[in-house]
Amino acid sequence: xxxxxxxxxxxxxxxxxxxxxxxxxxxxxxxxxxxxxxxxxxxxxxxxxxxxxxxxxxxxxxxxxxxxxxxxxxxxxxxxxxxxxxxxxxxxxxxxxxxxxxxxxxxxxxxxxxxxxxxxxxxxxxxxxxxxxxxxxxxxxxxxxxxxxxxxxxxxxxxxxxxxxxxxxxxxxxxxxxxxxxxxxxxxxxxxxxxxxxxxxxxxxxxxxxxxxxxxxxxxxxxxxxxxxxxxxxxxxxxxxxxxxxxxxxxxxxxxxxxxxxxxxxxxxxxxxxxxxxxxxxxxxxxxxxxxxxxxxxxxxxxxxxxxxxxxxxxxxxxxxxxxxxxxxxxxxxxxxxxxxxxxxxxxxxxxxxxxxxxxxxxxxxxxxxxxxxxxxxxxxxxxxxxxxxxxxxxxxxxxxxxxxxxxxxxxxxxxxxxxxxxxxxxxxxxxxxxxxxxxxxxxxxxxxxxxxxxxxxxxxxxxxxxxxxxxxxxxxxxxxxxxxxxxxxxxxxxxxxxxxxxxxxxxxxxxxxxxxxxxxxxxxxxxxxxxxxxxxxxxxxxxxxxxxxxxxxxxxxxxxxxxxxxxxxxxxxxxxxxxxxxxxxxxxxxxxxxxxxxxxxxxxxxxxxxxxxxxxxxxxxxxxxxxxxxxxxxxxxxxxxxxxxxxxxxxxxxxxxxxxxxxxxxxxxxxxxxxxxxxxxxxxxxxxxxxxx
Length: 694
Ligand code: 3HC
Ligand code: NAI
Prior knowledge:
Layout lengths: L4 E6 L2 E6 L9 H16 L5 E6 L22 H10 L4 E5 L2 E3 L1 H8 L2 E5 L3 E3 L13 H9 L1 H10 L3 E2 H7 L4 E3 L3 H14 L19 H9 L8 H14 L2 H16 L2 H15 L18 E4 L3 H12 L4 E4 L3 H20 L5 H10 E4 L10 E4 L5 H14 L5 E4 L6 H5 L8 E6 L8 E5 L6 H13 L3 E5 L7 H18 L3 H11 L5 H8 L1 H14 L9 H7 L12 E2 L8 E2 L1 H14 L8 H21 L6 H12 L8 H8 L1 H15 L8 H9 L6
Parallel strand pairs: 2-3, 3-4, 4-6, 5-7, 6-9, 10-11, 10-13, 11-12, 13-14, 14-15, 16-17
Antiparallel strand pairs: 1-2, 7-8, 15-16, 18-19
The protein binds 3-hydroxybutanoyl-coenzyme A and 1,4-dihydronicotinamide adenine dinucleotide.
């Protein structure tokens, strides 16, 4: 018998206890043990009722995802759940931690569920591109009604114990010790001869005749491209319309279809990649970390304010420094307004607004920074200004303080040399808006110490970010690839495509918006200033002038001026093609002697995407990113690359590295442009018939 699940008698109640760290996932051994222990409990004459509980940090948090895609080994989870439901002794699930997915499904096979206040329950399968496949879609609607079940299953978000009680998923909250409480609960039921409560025997209610079609419409935009949410709706519909066993059959079919879908493979890849990025190759897990209890941010502009909010949100006191009083006041006012808007939406309370503001301490004096453990500089993107700031930080900060820069284009190694302690310096590249975007590119300099890297990677998670370690180069990983794509998008328009056509191709691939809508959102002047700077400093390597420069010079800066590559109506972010811009493009082509040609959607896709894949391969080759998964996580969390395609390089594998390499070589031959010079890594993989992921 499996030793991952054990049975014991506590007085007159049998206890089935799962012990499979870290999250008691329902792997084969656990499933086998659950069945064996149930049978033992049923055979135990002294046991009047049974309690199922998880040891360690949680009730089972779901099926064992590592088993997906491997040959199934019995007993199957739906059968395990069915056996619990068929028990003729009362079974109580005692929940702490996170009863997710298959874990909650096991609990739904029990007659009753009790939970501690801090517990969460949920069916997050949709986030892995699948649906609850052990009866969750059939039992939850029967227990709480179709509308509520749809909300829980399709969003896939965990439900707090208190809300689960209100919904009727949980029957009682346990204040003290969970096992004691669950035993008492089971004893009370047994003493009162409480009837069995098999959810399968309940009728699922549909409160609104158009529920399913309306629900589908309500998620269409947000879930564009995903398959699982729509299959979830079909499965819940089956719970309402079909008898239980037929509904289970339908759930199984839909589950099986999703399990082998490319969307689910990609989403599972992202699940593990997101966790894997935290483990830095070559950096031992036990690398010591510095204590970070007090932080400072330099600059209260667009980025500085958002960065400070992350720390306040995590309960970490943060000082924010500006040179001028008015800039400081303005920055603080923006932070307060952001919090107040969040409170208006009901996401935080008025008290939380005040608590967080109290953690943010404005200052005009560097001398106030002598006690901080970490400083993040977010001042103007200018080397002289950075130099002034880092010299000052070097003067005032205590030994061992980490000095980080949020620069997006400057050389972190040079910045480190402005101090006497380059080993304490690294980049922390937040994405805008910094309080919202989950990605944090942590940039390791040549001299950055291991414990500084380990501390910053750990801190990323503490403030709710996905931290990815990258090396120093222009644009790091994300923007370096993005700039190549942007240049290609502009070139495609030069040759004859329209901005709207280019944007549509990338939108259809699953990006939230195309390259031109994105530059309108970010502000066209940002890229313009960088190009102009380059043209002054390094004219030989600067990009040639094009029609986007002209747009900026005419004051078309993007959404903020209601005109950029596209036009915008007041209060509306929808990009509208502009005849004025069309005329500018035509004029540019004429000046350059370019005869506009028809550009196919396929060519747009290949040029915009393959240029990024090739650059990604160069980034790996140079060691700027350690693994393909680091690049993929950056694109998903920094640029909204569709999760159901797994990231730029995971997507490249689905196209075929050889196919991409051939095209890259062809474009290189045709254009002679260095960006198309195939990366050696790409060439090797193509020759070996491999993908980035083997
Ligand atoms: N299967 C296998 N491994 C799992 C797992 C699972 N369901 N859930 C978590 N793990 C692993 C993680 O990969 C990680 O491994 P590592 O230490 O080697 O990197 C370890 O457990 C700890 O996980 P986290 O770092 O995520 O720990 P947290 O404490 O931050 O979060 C959690 C815990 C909330 C349980 C989170 O891990 C989570 O959301 N897990 C996935 C839950 C889920 O999706 N369940 C549904 C599975 S599908 C299913 O049940 C199908 C069924 O309907 C048939
Ligand atoms: P910003 O112009 O909005 O803010 C800069 C702030 O720094 C201003 O409030 C200014 O008063 C202050 N400042 C200037 N010199 C200072 C000094 N010596 N001491 C203290 N404060 C000083 O700029 P933004 O956009 O916030 O950018 C800041 C940094 O973040 C730059 O390095 C930029 O490259 C980087 N970054 C910007 C992103 C963006 O989308 N805006 C994204 C990622 C990084």
